[in-house]
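Task card 7
Instruction: Convert sequence to structure tokens.
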Amino acid sequence: MKHYSSLPFSLIYYIRTTAAVRGSKITVESMKKSPVDKWVVNPIQRFINNSTTSGIVLFVSALLAVIIANSPWSEAYHHFWHRSFSIGFEDFMLTKDLHHWINDGLMAIFFFVVGLELKREIIAGELREPKKAAMPIIAAIGGMVFPALIYHFFNPIGPTAHGWGIPMATDIAFALGVLYLLGDRVPLSLKVFLTALAIVDDIGAVLVIAFFYTSDINLISLGFGAGFLLLLMASNMMGVRSIIYYAIIGIGGLWLAFLMSGVHATIAAVLAAMTIPADVKVEDKDYIEKLNQLLQRFKQSTPSSSKTVTSDQLHILTEIRMYSKEALTPLQLLEHSMHPFVAFIVMPIFAFSNAGVTISGDIIHEISSSVFLGTFFGLTIGKVIGVFGTMYVLRKLKIIEWPSDINNTFMLGAGFVAAIGFTMSLFVSNLSFKEQIYIDEAKMGILFASVTASIIGYLIIRYAASKVPKT
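Output:
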């Protein structure tokens, strides 16, 4: 039969392996591919699934923003993001400019996916076992504390002191993009370590935003938000698995209440993600047994004389789809389906709207400002001291052990790669200051530091990889 393109990937893989075992002629390779599939759909899928492309798209978006912000279209670029529009009806209307809708609304989707990743890692990932989690957790804490201290050194008092949270973040998309550019010579344990570090770093950033970067709190709205959160938690416990249900309550209730409360609305996105069910409705053994029965029925069914399937075949395929969906967790299904949208739509739009810093004629003054210096050195020095320095000292004291394939040079390179702040740092810079001049100085520090850290980290890890004997 030739109508497998609509089935889930996991099912196609199962059919392929099952057919190979039984000597069947049903294989993925034997499926007919249209020219659109061959020349459009498949290349786009390969592009999206490539680990480096999201970082490249993010970098291009930021670079384009900087170029336009320093071109004859600079004024139009900045003016565009300050256009206001409203949502709601009659007496209940929310009015914000486009820049705020992106940072408070669109970025909530980014934080929702971050929340899904956090929950998955805590339940079944690198953060599940305390022994495995200790190393990235300690490194992440060091990588947050030292950048904040260095920023504080340059900005101990005054209106700029509130920006200490800016250099604390690691941009996981850029960081992993740098590692994957280096290919298979980079130890897998280094990639796992840096991924876990970035995830713990995200937890820290979320907590910092929640406790230190909120405005005046409206307790009534916050109370409504707490009520919606309890409703979502109770729904999870009662076995509600509808993604649409969680979307309606999470967006129309929890996110909106937090937006009105003064607590940053992106925190609501993380909390909503934590309530998404992370268990399957059909266990693997039952799923395989049922699937075998359905595939046998499909094989024995009378084939259609036309290009369409018969009513009986359609019924079987519908059952396969239903059982396949129940064999997936809503959490993983959401994370997998939303990741491309966040990586290729949300984050590039955020970067394009936030990275456009107009460099004035007095650039020497700007790069010598306390905000720039605190941000730049907080990332390029603070992160390296916090990640590499902390790990090195604890290893010398024999408190922790590194994986056998990670040496000092690899870890030093990881420290620089962790200094790529970008997305989260840009986000916090908008929360830290009201004065545009300080925001621009911070963004310049972030951009300069992220590029510098990317290059140095890449070169160090490449050098370390070149010294590893080829097997």
